[in-house]
Amino acid sequence: MPKPCGRWFSKLALLSALANPLFFLGCGGGSSSSTEPAPTVTVTVSPDPLGPAPTVTGISPSTGNTAGGTSLTISGAGFATGASVKVGGSACGSVSVVSSTSITCLSPAGSAGSATVSVVNYDGQTGTITGAFSWVAGPAITSISPTAGASAGGTSLTMTGSGFQSGATVTVGGNTCTSPSVASATSMTCTTPSGTAGTTVSVVVTNPDTITGTLSSAFTFNAAPTVSSVSPTSGPTAGSTSLTITGTGFLTGATAKVGGNTCTSPSLSGSTSLTCTTPSGSAGAANVVVTNTDTQAGTLSSGFTYIAAPTVSTVSPSGGLPGGGTSITLTGTGFLSGATVTVGGNTCTSPSVASTTSMTCTTPSGTTGTSVNVVVTNPDSQTGTKTNGFSYNPAPTVTSVSPTAGTTSGGTSLTITGTGFISGATATVGGSTCTSPSVSSSTTMTCSTPSASAGTATVVVTNSDTQAGSKADAFTYAVAPTVSSISPSKAGTNGGISATLTGTGFVTGATATAGGTTCTSPSVASATSLTCTLPSHSAGAVDIVVTNPVGVSGTLSSGLTYTTSNVWSATTSTSAPTGRFGHTAVWTGSKVVVWGGTDGSVMLGTGSRYDPTADSWSTTTTTSAPVERYLHSVVWTGSKMIIWGGQNVGAGTTFQNTGGVYDPSGNSWTATSTTSAPTARQSHTAVWTGSKMIIWGGQQGSSTVYSTGGVYDLSGDSWSATSTTSPPTARTLQTATWTGSKMIVWGGDNSSGTPLSTGGIYDLSGDSWSATSTTSPPSARDAHSAVWTGTKVLIWGGWDGGGPLATGSIYDVSGNSWSAISTTSAPAARSAHAAVWTGSKMLIWGGAGASANLSSGGIYDLSGDSWSAMTNTSAPAGATGPATIWTDSFLIVWGGDDGSGTGLSSGGVYVP
């Protein structure tokens, strides 16, 4: 039998085959037979199966931790795959043959000191380096502090252990811990790098000799905390709200801030809840911040709102019933849902918050007459107070109203006086609402009266708390007067002239004002006419107001124009009539009508009309005009001028008992009847009674003087004689005035040319005469003046037979008595002068003085029995017997004798 091939293998061949795959074994083959051929063995070895022994030239690092585990790199040659390494006789772990010249492994543990390093190839060959590696006791970390920190890094870390060497470095989770500092062999610090939030990592200390110490799973990178909600979400600015903060990542020792200020008494309940007490803060939203001990923080922006304490600015109504039940509205700021109210310390029921600025409630009862605080309390216990914000009002009272009367059309501004009026009070007059009510104080309110029927009305004031007070018949409704015109419509700034106001609704006791100043001596003639004396006033247009006794008024806007007083202006000479004297003039209400007279050489039967407003002249018609004459008489009836008598020298009958009626509206003449007319005469007197003309006295020739007269009825164009029973002594150049019921005749010359100091009173209604008092009368005179004041006759000046006079007297018709007029500052003595009554004063001007005609004058104030001077600046030339007119506003004089027997054709207008 054949022998196995293997029996012939030598030991060397076997070793070579194990080491080298190129080693081939071959055995002869053949069929199984009884004869086996001799075995053939072929051995190929490449390379030499033992090879060179490894050599070790160096090791790095040359030191390592006695605990082992140092990563070593061994340098040399002949390192074979599968080689092993020993350090100090102990196997090096994790051997890796990098190349035939480099091997790496992890050092085994060993005792401190040097050690031999050996590399053993697979074939058992060994390379050795003696004392190339030393075991050194490395650093050891026993603890760190803190054990956790921010994932962003920056945590100051303290390592405690042993073997820390100066220059040692640290890694945390494999990343460098910055700013390492070795305090001692047992303590060092560094600042952590960033890391992955939520991971726990090892801390490694590496000494300068590269030996390391590791504390596994020693440090945790914490996630930053988050704040998701707070409860409650608001609280008072004073702080002290217990706050619960919810979130994630809260660490033990975590703190909180609200609005940048520390939330006190923090308490952690797990990593998701923290409670604290809010600090004080400013009103408004505030951030809530939780800060962990690792300095990481979480913020909930505007998470908490500081709410200011409420304020109460107004309470409406500010007063109410003492029994309570008043619904009040509070206005202010910071009212929160659930707020409550107290009034005077007692609960205001049914509180309702409409908004942060408005709420309502119903007042409790309180003490009458007290003012109490109103307090709003929010659910956060903060309060706001309106001091004395509500009053428990007594019922109002009405004591008086002003004015006490007004027009039925309403609109009278009414002032109501009383007690207990509160803001919002209303008023009624006669049961109708008084509009625009305004409460100025607890005792005064105003409103505008409603319209109503004439009569008295009750005034009621009702407070907003429904309490009311009234005064019966406190206000009278009356029909207001109206003022349609005033005559005159112009006056001097000194006032003092009588004015007649025309309108409707004037009642006895009515008063008047001009430009706001009271008109004196008001007298109501009828419901349509009122007279008064105008006050002084500055120049310009003013309103005229008539006020009835009940207080209702009517106004004529700009009805009167005041012009500068005590000034003269000349009448125009353009188209002026022929100069003359012994003529007559009347005032029609708008124009002066001049007629007749003589120019000094011939008698005149012509006339003209002067318009003072336009300062212009226009002639009167001569168609059917009376025959020429002078020293005749004239009266104005209110619509027509009547002239009568006079003398016409050299033109037929010298003395006239004829006359004419001139109608200025038609510029036409009609003759007066001569049937039963008085005897022809001149230098007589005439008065108009309102319906008739009375002629009396006068002369015919130098020696025939009359004590007879006649009454002319214009409506019937008829004459009747005046009584001849007990008339005054026959006379001429006397004066006559009409009192409204009687004619007063006084003075003049008798048939001998002697001046008289007697007079008579003719009563038209009884056609009878009575004498004027002879007790203390003025001295005898002629060519004097007389004016009727409305109650008295004023006699002044004249000629006493020896010279002109500067004296006068006041005749009181009702008492039939005389009193002297003051002579202090009286004008110069004169006769044949002009005199008019203005309504309050007598104006004297011109006339013949002691040696010449005068262009001066004076103003006599009856109320003060005093004289003041009349300016003569721009006054007309002095004249005797000028035509004299009072226009109700101005004195107009025109013509007259210039002193040489020649008539003047000039004149002037005087504003008193």
Characterize the structure shown.
The chain has 912 residues and is mainly beta. It is built from one helix and 83 strands. The strands form 19 sheets. Strands 37-39-42-41-40-43-44-38 form an eight-stranded mixed β-sheet, with no helix packed on it. A five-stranded mixed β-sheet has the order 2-9-8-4-5, with no helix packed on it. The protein has a five-stranded mixed β-sheet with strand order 11-18-17-13-14, with no helix packed on it. Strand 69 and strand 70 (742-746) form a beta hairpin. The radius of gyration is 70 Å and the shape is rod-shaped. The termini are far apart. Mean pLDDT is 91; it is low at 1-48.
Summarize the structure.
This protein is mostly beta strands and 912 residues long. It is built from 1 helix and 83 strands.
Q: What's the main sheet like?
A: 8 strands, mixed
Tally the helices: what do you get?
A: 1
Distance between the termini: 190 Å
Strand order of the largest sheet: 37-39-42-41-40-43-44-38
Q: Which bin fits the share of residues in helices?
A: under 10%
Keywords:
912 residues; mainly beta; eight-stranded mixed β-sheet; five-stranded mixed β-sheet
Task: Present the secondary structure layout.
Blueprint: H1 11-19, E1 55-60, E2 63-65, E3 71-77, E4 84-87, E5 90-91, E6 93-99, E7 102-106, E8 113-120, E9 126-136, E10 140-145, E11 148-150, E12 156-162, E13 169-172, E14 175-176, E15 178-184, E16 187-191, E17 200-206, E18 212-222, E19 226-231, E20 234-236, E21 242-248, E22 255-258, E23 261-262, E24 264-268, E25 273-277, E26 284-291, E27 297-307, E28 311-316, E29 319-320, E30 327-333, E31 340-343, E32 346-347, E33 349-355, E34 358-362, E35 371-377, E36 383-392, E37 397-402, E38 405-407, E39 413-419, E40 426-429, E41 432-441, E42 444-448, E43 455-462, E44 468-478, E45 482-487, E46 490-492, E47 498-504, E48 511-514, E49 517-518, E50 520-526, E51 529-533, E52 540-547, E53 553-563, E54 567-570, E55 584-587, E56 592-595, E57 607-611, E58 616-619, E59 633-636, E60 641-644, E61 659-663, E62 668-671, E63 685-688, E64 692-696, E65 699-700, E66 704-705, E67 709-713, E68 718-721, E69 735-738, E70 742-746, E71 759-763, E72 768-771, E73 785-788, E74 792-796, E75 808-812, E76 817-820, E77 834-837, E78 841-845, E79 857-861, ...
Parallel strand pairs: 2-9, 11-18, 20-27, 29-36, 38-44, 46-53
Antiparallel strand pairs: 1-3, 3-7, 4-5, 4-8, 6-7, 8-9, 10-12, 12-16, 13-14, 13-17, 15-16, 17-18, 19-21, 21-25, 22-23, 22-26, 24-25, 26-27, 28-30, 30-34, 31-32, 31-35, 33-34, 35-36, 37-39, 39-42, 40-41, 40-43, 41-42, 43-44, 45-47, 47-51, 48-49, 48-52, 50-51, 52-53, 54-83, 55-56, 56-57, 57-58, ...
